[in-house]
Amino acid sequence: MMKPTPEQLALQHTLAVCQGHADALQDALQDMQLRSLSADDYCHLNKADRRLLDQFAYRYTRLQDDMGARLVPAALKAQGEDIAPLSAFDRFARLEQLGWLPSADEWLTLRQVRNAFAHDYPDSPTERFDRLDAATEAAKRLLAVMAQFLLKTQEKG
After folding, report:
1. What is the dihedral of CA 133, 128, 92, 101, to 10 degrees?
2. pLDDT > 70 in the chain, percent
3. Can you give the pTM of this predicted structure?
4. d(CA 143, CA 152)
5. What's the burial of 18, exposed, middle or buried (CB within 10 Å: 0-12/13-18/19+)?
6. How far from the centroid of its chain's Cα atoms is residue 69's Cα?
7. Mean pLDDT, to the nearest integer, of 40-65?
8. Confidence of residue 45 (pLDDT cuts 50, 70, 90)
9. What is the C-alpha separation between 43 and 64, in angstroms, rounded?
């Protein structure tokens, strides 16, 4: 059996970090589903609900950030790709070509949803709730992308 390269070891480490965020995000999504907050509940959050939404927001943000900033480059480097000349979008496009990412464009859409959810604070509770709803769907897609990364890593040995 061949010894893993430093790039492969870096990929394994980054995958483990991202998987920790993914597991916690999955837990938060399950708890949110059990709680099934309505738009009305969202106006009057109790401490437990606020903690749950904070956990969701934190893990969703961390997973997406770590995947984009660390996992994507690590996956490309482990494939022997030279990422230095590539813009962030080109890295996503290259991973799409290699079958690691379903769609570079979808990745950017997931990022926009995350940014709207994490950084914009609309006054209307209905708008905030709609953004939470969009972020919940985006988080599910992000978890599917993470699962695809795990699969590709296992295929590559």
Report:
1. -10
2. 96
3. 0.89
4. 14
5. buried
6. 11
7. 90
8. confident
9. 27
Residue range 6-156, CATH number: 1.20.120
* Better-scored residue on pLDDT, 129 or 109: 109
**Of residues 120, 149, 150, 148, the one with CA closest to residue 134:** 120
**Interatomic CA distance for residues 116 and 40, integer angstroms:** 21
- Domain boundaries, given as residue ranges, for the chain: 6-156
Whether the per-residue pLDDT at 74 is higher than 80: the answer is yes
For tokens 């769907």, the residue is 137
Q: Where are the alpha helices (DSSP H) in 36-124?
A: 39-43, 47-66, 72-78, 88-97, 104-119
DSSP code, position 2 = P
How far CA 33 is from CA of 26, 27, 56, 104, in Å, comes to: 11, 10, 12, 28
User: What is the Cα–Cα distance from 99 to 149, expressed in whole angstroms?
Assistant: 9
Sorted by sequence, the CB contacts under 8 Å of residue 28 that are 6+ apart come out as: 52, 55, 56, 59
7, amino acid identity: E
Q: How many residues does the chain have?
A: 157
CA-derived radius of gyration, the chain? 17
Q: What percent of the chain lies above the pLDDT cut of 90?
A: 64
Structure tokens at 86: 């590539």
State pLDDT tens for residues 124-137: 777 888 888 899 99
